[in-house]
Design brief:
The chain is an all-alpha fold and 336 residues long. It is 70% helix and 0% strand. It has one domain (9-318). It has helices at 9-35, 46-95, 103-128, 141-147, 153-156, 159-163, 169-176, 181-198, 204-229, 234-260, 270-291, 304-318. 34% of the residues are buried.
Length: 336
């Protein structure tokens, strides 16, 4: 997530500079052949170009709206995880108690349930940061260049190392042996709640409420996995890219006659104006592309690493711990 007031114009130009080079090359080639070589037949009427631009603008707007909806839904899901996690913390602390247990025994049980929840968030964010074939952050050169300005913790970290302080060795081995680690951690939570219920630590009503909260966590996880594992439909992404590319190729040829009418040598104005018009469309397409996968580790993603750390701090404070991990800070205005 970008935490600054806005992206700078320099950042935008650097991010799209390769497009600018290609667009300039197309415009120079078209204008040179028209004005120098005398290939006047290259000029095409502006009306079909304008119609193509209308179609390209429509499909680009549709894509950007849809990808923004995906990004906003991801943020809402993780907002729900924040709220449900805090509720889990107070329920564990205040519901789970046994008259015969000592204070240290109660604290141990509370720590097990809260630490296991932190482990669930850790496993989930590692799963959400895994690469998919349709994602862009490490497949497009311009995105890779920008990604070098910050670090994606789940790409450089190790899940095993992060789970060690949160779970028992047996649980770490068990969880890492499974494909969907986050799912199995919620399963372990439910298993312990059943044991606590059998031992009289919680009433039946409290047990039902805690299990209902585990269901909420599964709901949040499932919604996150749906966004992660189901891309923005490829047919719409493909036709959007095709329309944009066709339009930017046609723009300079449609402007040739229009500027030639204005006077001698003014046909060369085709180059800057066609580059600017085409750049607007290609940049809109890139923005939609960079928004469509909100968990891949891009600069516009939902900051699940930071949100997980915030939840962890809140839960540890509920246990009255003082040795807390630091909050995640933005690097070059990018918060992961």
């Amino acid at each position: 997530m970008h935490t600054g007031r806005n992206y700078t114009f320099k950042e935008l130009i650097l991010w799209t500079r390769r497009d600018i080079y290609v667009l300039t090359g197309i415009a120079v080639l078209a204008t040179g052949l028209y004005a120098v070589a005398g290939w006047n037949w290259l000029s095409i009427p502006w009306v079909p170009v304008a119609l193509m631009g209308t179609a390209a603008a429509f499909i680009a707007g549709f894509k950007n709206s849809a990808t923004y909806a995906r990004a906003w839904e991801a943020r809402q899901i993780w907002g729900g995880i924040v709220n449900s996690s805090r509720t889990w913390g107070i329920m564990v602390r205040d519901f789970i108690r046994s008259p015969s247990a000592t204070a240290s025994e109660r604290l141990l049980v509370h720590q097990q349930l809260i630490y296991r929840h932190i482990a669930w968030m850790t496993a989930l964010r590692y799963q959400l940061r895994e690469s998919r074939s349709w994602e862009n952050i490490f497949t497009k050169r311009y995105n890779t260049e920008y990604a070098s300005r910050y670090t994606i913790p789940e790409r450089v970290g190790n899940l095993n190392d992060e789970l060690q302080p949160l779970l028992s060795p047996d649980e770490v081995s068990y969880v890492l042996s499974k494909k969907n680690r986050a799912t199995q951690l919620i399963s372990l939570q439910s298993k312990q709640l059943q044991t606590l219920s059998d031992q009289g630590w919680i009433t039946e009503l409290q047990y039902v409420q805690l299990e209902s909260l585990l269901k909420e966590f599964y709901d949040h996880q499932g919604k996150s996995e749906r966004i992660k594992n189901f891309p923005y439909p490829r047919q719409f992404a493909t036709i959007n890219q095709f329309f944009i590319r066709l339009f930017v190729i046609m723009v300079p040829f449609g402007l040739l006659k229009e500027f030639d009418k204005l006077g001698d040598n003014l046909v060369w104005l085709t180059i800057p104006f066609s580059v600017v018009v085409s750049w607007v469309f290609t940049t809109l397409e890139k923005i939609g592309e960079s928004t469509e996968n909100p968990f891949e580790g891009g600069p516009n993603d939902t900051p699940i690493t930071s949100m997980s750390r915030t939840i962890e701090i809140d839960l540890r404070e509920m246990l009255d711990e003082t040795n807390l991990p630091p909050a995640i800070q933005a690097v070059n205005n990018i918060l992961m």
